[in-house]
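To whoever picks this up:

The parser on our side crashed when reading a file containing two proteins. I've narrowed it down to the boundary between the first structure block and the second sequence. Both blocks are reproduced below exactly, byte for byte. First block:
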Amino acid sequence: MPARRQSSSANTGLPPINRRGVKYPRLTTKPVERHTRPSNAAYFNRELSWLAFNRRVLEQAHDAHVPLLERVKFLAIVCSNLDEFFEIRVAGLIQQVESGVNKAGIDGLGPREQLRRIHSVVASLVDDLYRTWQEELVPSLAAEGIIFKSAEELSATELGWVKQYFEEQVFPVLTPLGLDQSHPFPQLGNKTLNVIVSLDDPSTTEVERQAALLPVPRILPRLVRMNADVAKEQTYIFLSEIIKLCADAFFPGYKINGAHAFRVTRNSDLYIDEEEAENLLKTIEAELLNLRRGAAVRLEIEQGVNEEIFTTLCDHLELSHEYVFRLNGPLNLLRLMSLTEIDRPDLKYPPFTPAPSTVLKPGISPFDTIRQRDVLLHHPYDAFTPVVEFVAQAARDPKVFAMKQTLYRTSGDSPIVRALIEASQRGKQVTALVELKARFDEANNIQWARQLEEAGVHVVYGLVGHKTHCKCSLVVRREGGKLKRYVHLGTGNYNPKTAKLYTDLSLFTARTDITDDVANTFNTLTGFSREPHFERLLVAPFTLHSRTIELIDREAANAAAGKPARIMAKMNSLVDKATIDHLYAASRAGVQIDLIVRGICCLVPGVRGLSENIRVRSIVGRYLEHVRAFYFQNSDGEPEIFCGSADWMPRNFFRRIEVTFPVDDPAARAWITDELFPMELQDNENARELKSNGAYLPAERSDDTPSFSVQNYFIAAANQRAKAALLAASEEEAGDE
């Protein structure tokens, strides 16, 4: 667990925290009566709030204080996020319109009006995206010797190199497809690169404007470094520029009037009736093959394309013009992510190595430690290694009889999966709950499911109609003739790669009240249980929502009675209307509420008579903020603190299996109340505060207040812990000598 600093309540404006004995009685407080019902104006639109988050990501690409190649990465992330937004969210709204569904969201906007507003916001966002690339990043990269050129900017030497590259690497792979009555319009894959060419027969007096397509296979690199083997400078050209430049090679005898790159985004959501699907794994495999044939929901095309050809494209794609974006630059800037592999540490964030745990040490059985105390880790500042070792050592430990594991997203070469396979091969009973419907990771998870089954692991897919999103690992070990359970619970996935990029919390415990609930959770998922009972865990879709409402209402009742009342909550998204309404009621009762919501937030803060006691902020920085943590002051007892896998969204409360767990260990609780929340609320560098008009503005800072980044703070703290651990190890080694 991270080292705890002195209480900083006096510096942050936080009220003092009560720290008496840990007890968690059942709540009996009735909800505070709400005298007014919030209107639709009391909620922000979910989709527009999500786009506002991407605007905050784009701000990182604008920020000159962010290292240059990191700015490029943020730009690429925005493009990737927009792809997913159209594939899932916009696709769903289009389907609603086409089906005649006019049901409005909590903000009062119907699907048609949402689409209209989305187009306006996205058009502005895309314009700013390409302006950032063309006017800020390209010149800055060139100043650092990383040069991007269009076909028109090539020198004679570079032109010769490009043509040779085309002849050797590109021409043999591409197949031209004519577009006329004898050549049907081809099926274009989702997000694939294509070039449409306008052709004219010079032997006739008429301008025919015939059209042909050049679909580009994914195997070809989209970003090409010129003279990479001999040149010291790093000069790049996009593959689309090379193809457009050399397109005449495919159409001898014709005149090229124009060539423009384009890509189509298609509806990529899975449509599966689980109750009718006899074999869920095979059904999802088949559905994945159909994704490429999903309906078109967006067309991106370079500026300058002929209107007749443009209309032909839209007609064939059955796509109206409001879903078309004409781009002033290369398509799919996500491909710029490869630039982060350039060996230029001066253009990246300073290197950081996560601190090794000072409690769960290599060479010492984690079970001996966890039996004595709970352990809380804060990734990526604390290394993810103890999580991997917990599973790996359980696989090798002859005293371990059984292992149970949830897998939502994991890495391509997963040490967790390898450990589960090894455990099964060693004769242990191993159960893995693999979520086949983890969006965009379906194919990977199918692969893991097959490998696990082949190794003898019991693979199950959870409850029908619910995604298994909880992060749980259970180990059953024989000790002294009795069976003892150990668990790991987390806020993030069992993925060592993303654990270096996402901020998350990990809890190891052997407390029987927690481990019994975890065992009950697994039994519910693998067997049958209509009304499972949980003593300590808040489990969706069973108890999480109702218990969250109770906790909010208790703070409201305490505030109404004149007692101290406070809520602090950190999450990715806040969408659930009932939860928002109860937060509004708590605010009116006088509860001080601080919400740290990275992404979507439908709650409107700072409205007089409704939410004037609620503050909302978002932090976007080097790491993706992914922690879900919740604090309720509970003035009549000990504060209640929870962490878990769930955001406050309807899907998390009702359509997913989620686990939110209490934090009991005194040191861990003190760190969350004195360190995690206060430091997050002090950030004035990467934090943006949500205003009642929907704007996210930089956190207010007086002229004499120094800049403070919470992520940099935790990095510095981790570095200090690593140095202290290294010094202690050196002293111990010297003492042994």
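<<boundary where parser fails>>
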Amino acid sequence: MGTSQICIMIAIGLYLIGMLIVGAACSKNNNTADDFYIGGRRLGPIVTAMSAEASDMSSWLLMGLPGVAYATGICDASWTAIGLAVGTYANWLIVAKKIRRYSHVTNSITIPDFFSNRYRDKSNVIMIISAIVILVFFIPYTASGFAACGKLFSSLFGVDYMTAMIVSAVIIVGYTALGGFLAASTTDLIQSIVMSIALIVVFIFGIKVAGGMDAVLDNAKNITGYLSLNTMYDPATNTAVEYGFISKVSTFAWGLGYFGMPHVLLRFMAINDHNKLTLSRRIATVWVVISLAMAIFIGVVGLAMTNAGAVNYLEGSSAAETIIVEISALLSTYGIIPALLAGIILAGILASTMSTADSQLIAASSAVSKNIFGIFNKDDSPKRTMALARTTLLVISVIAAIIARNPNSSVFNIVSFAWAGFGGAFGPIMLFSLFWRRTTREGAISGMISGGVMVFVWKYCVKPMGGFWNIYELLPAFIVASIVIVVVSLLTKEPSKEIIEEFDKVKSETNFV
């Protein structure tokens, strides 16, 4: 093993040990399920902002998005980024304070809790359906995170993929099971800092190796349609393919997903003071915009490095997603200090993966232990509840690891499907629950089911038809669910006086903060 690999291993090793230490430290604050699932609502504004965005971005920020830009130009990646930036801001602006206040009033510590308490659903149908939705989309999402870690270590050190993936999963599960939501949020803050350092180092180093900014831009300009927001570059034919209005709207619709992301919404619910969410919103929005822009440009820089002969050409979407790994490997050959910086970059990739996986594990385990098993074990002691929560987390992790045994899946594709699932199933019901007092229990249930089902129908039955139908499944699912919620709510009995008064109380309080 060479000096560069040793330095990389030292940097990554110190990072992973640090995450476990944080988990152990946070475990001392977990005395109840409320502490484990939502940190006792004790998050400060900076931790809230950065943990929300770190858990949101996942490995696709450092792998998926640069890979798309590298392979097909900035068009698809840019419209996705624009949608995400607008969605991020809108979610913080119109949802954050309301869900924080509403969840506190209804004493809800998970998203299924909130939906069930909001509509006084004594049958627990909403709670069970929403918990199932979380499991269906979060387990493969988590598996993609485990797989990304396995790919990273396997390609870097030549170790067996399965071994690398399992070791990575054990680390993530370890600090999450120990420290719960507080550990996940605290480590996410650290991970967002590491991710930022990784983006900056790769950005500067890549430009230098490619021959400077002028060389990077000249290379991109010489590729047909590569820098256009109206066309995508097709490397197979070396031509530009039109990126029409439908495609732009479809990709921009990524932003709708934020309204239904449980791991992001939980951060809003967990802040210690809803008045501090304004500061959180500003921090989160600025970080997201800068990070997305740099990630896209890293793909452009990576292609310039390829054409300059510094990096081998990466053919195909899955291979293109490793461009930042290739750049890090090149950096590590420049000496001990650069090798340590390369280790930090690779730790940043781990951070982007781990920050999402830990949050997903918390949300998925809470869906099972509290919102499914908890229905039948309401009188359990806090100690037994905590044990059930941790056991559930471990079981879900094993299932995710089994799914992750295939190293050939695309991170971007898996993330986009899960994103559509939550956006379609939870996004409309969340907005209607917060902003339309006439929404009924039946409307909420119907909207959630129709949105989730439409994601599958559109993805596997309609979208393959191509042409006009080649729309990102989130958009039609969101529209269908919204229509169903309105129609069913108007056709069913209006909410009780108690529900209406609670809605009006929350509305009046959040209008003046």
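After patching the parser it read the second block fine. The first helix runs from residue 3 to 27. The chain has one domain: 3-235+263-408.
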